[in-house]
Amino acid sequence: xxxxxxxxxxxxxxxxxxxxxxxxxxxxxxxxxxxxxxxxxxxxxxxxxxxxxxxxxxxxxxxxxxxxxxxxxxxxxxxxxxxxxxxxxxxxxxxxxxxxxxxxxxxxxxxxxxxxxxxxxxxxxxxxxxxxxxxxxx
Length: 138
Hints:
The protein has one helix spanning about 1-35, and strands spanning about 35-40, 50-55, 60-65, 75-80, 90-95, 100-105, 110-115, 120-125. By secondary structure, it is an alpha+beta fold. The relative contact order is 0.18. It starts with a helix and ends in a 13-residue tail after the last strand.
């Protein structure tokens, strides 16, 4: 009976430690997302396409995108939150649009934003050589 109590105690401790590690992993992935991101030409090669940027700070996300053919930039603010502990996120934009995101994607560790209605994907990378355009109102 004494052994059963000891084994039960050890089992409970191991479960508690396992849960704590998963929570820490989620915190670590959140820290990685903070910063400025630049759009890439494709989710495979990761080459910069400096027409759109994201800025993430804590749970706030801001987007700045050049409007095709006009040379003007529009910004949008939203909230990003973890959807699970596997690097999947949900984004609720201020205009009511909802989007999914994943990090890391591929060897280049890109941040992908997925349109749930069309399943189209845009990928972003952290690249300080391509800072946001001065017209972006972050």
